[in-house]
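Tutorial handout. Part one gives the primary structure; part two gives the three-dimensional structure as tokens.
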Amino acid sequence: MVTLERVKELSKELYDKLLVLWQNTGISNPARKDSFEAVQFSLQHTGTIIIASDDEELLGAVWVNHDYRRLYIHHMAVNPQKQNQGIGTMLMVESVKIAGEYGYQAKLEVHVDNYAAWHLYEKFGFTELSGYRTLILRDK
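Part two.
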């Protein structure tokens, strides 16, 4: 049975499992600088990680945080062997629920080639924010 848990305190064991999940789903990127300390700092402030598990196995996770007006949904990942079983939907339901609890808009980014994610997000009513480009400055 799949259970969801909202995590606000990061253990090294969970962080290591998240890294494996992120690597196995292709969302891991060293340029993101998602160190243990960075993730823990997020959780100590406005972040939450929602984990989906079955007994001790991490099946999926999503990391959310907010800026006091929008809830940002990122690092959404489901174990490739467990995809298409409703786990991503469960994680999105919980993410949108958190946005509703705060009364915030929910916002996310998705790679243009990630059609499965597009399909999931569109099921929840997310639409493309046209007229905007996403820019980032990773290092100065």
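Part three, for discussion. The chain has one domain: 3-123. The first strand starts at residue 3 and ends at 7.
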